[in-house]
Amino acid sequence: MCPMTSVRTDEQASVRPTQEDEVAAAGSEVIGGPHGRRAGSAGWWNPLRVIVLLALGMFALGMVQKLPCYDGAWFSGQTSQYVRACYSDIPHLYNGRGFADGIMPYFERIPDEVSGGMEYLEYPVLTGLFMTVASWMTPGGGDIVEREQIYWMINAAMLMICAVVATVAVSRTHRFRPWDALLLALAPAYALTATINWDLLAVALTAVAMLMWSRSRPLATGVLLGLATAAKLYPLFLLGPLLVLCWRGGRWRAFGTALGGAALSWSCVNVPVMIGAWDGWLKFYSFSQERPVDFGSIWLILSQRTDLPLESTDVNNYAMILMLLGCSAIAALTLTAPRRPRFPQLAFLVLALFVLTNKVYSPQYVLWLIPLAVLARPKWRDFLIWQACEVMYFVGIWMYLAYTGSGDKHQGLPPEGYQVIILVHLLGTLYLSAVVIRDILLPEHDVVRSSGADDPAGGPLDGIPDRFVLRRHSSLTASTSSTEPKVHWGAGRPQ
């Protein structure tokens, strides 16, 4: 007879937050205390199912939070939907971008009396397709208010699917840390902003792309990143972290495959529209360039507190310069860090830099950062501090809009108060970025690596020796595994 062996499954080896995180352990007292040694994890209630169920519950609570607007505030005037903090673009754009009249996005001009001067849909092509499919499922005829309500409900159902996809992808990206996705499922800003706009489509595609990279599938990663970029521009920035990480790790083929897949899938979605409706396709990019300084940005504070003439073109240039300088600093950090940074850490830093320097910060943009923050720094205290700042911003922007839209009554938050709220948002993002940078410079503080892992989301880069670094080290471990031999480095290459 063969001796019986014990196989340690992913579920049995998974890291449980109540066993390593003091905040999670304290919070678990509400439901019976931390996970005990006799608590089983087998059966139907595995981590993934629990997390998905909680994500669905939080998404539903976010929909309930929009109930006052659904019941009339969307249609009774601007101030009411701001006071109740339940605004959403979705019902307004159903009629305002011609979907109620069956206008084909990009190919047909929107009448001025409908759009208020926006000639074409100002969203990327894949998001426009998402919006169009929802309009096809919305019954025609009848009262326009009822149709807008149905359109919002259909979009909410489709966005709920995107939220579940993103949650599953985050839970599976770090193979032995599925419970980290609880941060995503329970994030209050995630629930509050999920149905403001269509950002969750790009968020879901990006999350699955990162999952594919963690499974060493660079072509699938690139295809999904290209699709995500066809839905929203921000996923394009994730190619930068992949570039410098593959440079340091010498995995140029993997990066080239991902880049080629991204270009191919983006082209498949965009080129047909570019050929058939150039002006309509270009609208998203021209609108982004021409858009003036707007809500939530440091530029808005400067324009309101000073007499600086911050024209859109000038701010675009300033933001681009700051973005290039910041990305150069992140690249230098990557190539000089004592240990190769993890992919989610760099992805979060690049997106946070974009958010901090951009000329507008809509409240739903936090959705871009939440999955990356969960993977970069799965520490409940830091995550909740940042989320508290984002919830304050969510409330603050609506109160500011209520103030500006209430005429002489000035009910809401005045500009000075809104400027404080913007600073809270900026400081919260800077704080989380700072602790991620500390984890990169001092890898012993990285909770993901505390169990001996290298980069669970790194895929082709996980556990491999460096091939290029910029800083001399007297002795550097060639691989992150303690079983690998040490080599000496000089001028960035092994001697």
Report a brief summary of the structure:
By secondary structure, the protein is mainly alpha-helical. 61% of the residues lie in helices and 2% in strands.
Topology record:
Elements: H1 10-13, H2 17-20, H3 22-27, H4 47-65, H5 67-73, H6 78-83, H7 89-96, H8 112-115, H9 125-136, H10 144-173, H11 181-186, H12 188-193, H13 199-214, H14 218-231, H15 239-249, H16 252-276, H17 278-290, H18 298-305, H19 312-336, H20 343-357, H21 366-376, H22 380-405, H23 415-441, E1 476-477, E2 486-487, E3 489-490, E4 493-494
Antiparallel strand pairs: 1-2, 3-4
Helix pairs in contact: 4-10, 7-10, 9-14, 10-13, 13-14, 13-21, 14-16, 15-16, 15-19, 15-20, 16-17, 18-23, 19-20, 20-21, 20-23, 22-23
Kindly list the characteristics that best describe this protein.
single chain; 495 residues; mainly alpha; two-stranded antiparallel sheet; 23 helices; 4 strands; globular; disordered N terminus; disordered C terminus; UCP010361
SSE-based structural type = mainly alpha
How many domains? The number is: 2
How many beta strands in the DSSP annotation? 4
What percentage of the residues does DSSP assign to strands (E)?
A: under 5%
State the major sheet.
2 strands, antiparallel
Low-confidence stretches: 1-12, 473-495
SS summary, helix count: 23
SSE topology string: HHHHHHHHHHHHHHHHHHHHHHHEEEE
- Give the neighbour order of strands across the main sheet: 1-2
Pfam families: GT87
Membrane topology: Multi-pass membrane protein
Protein name: DUF2029 domain-containing protein
Family: Belongs to the glycosyltransferase 87 family.
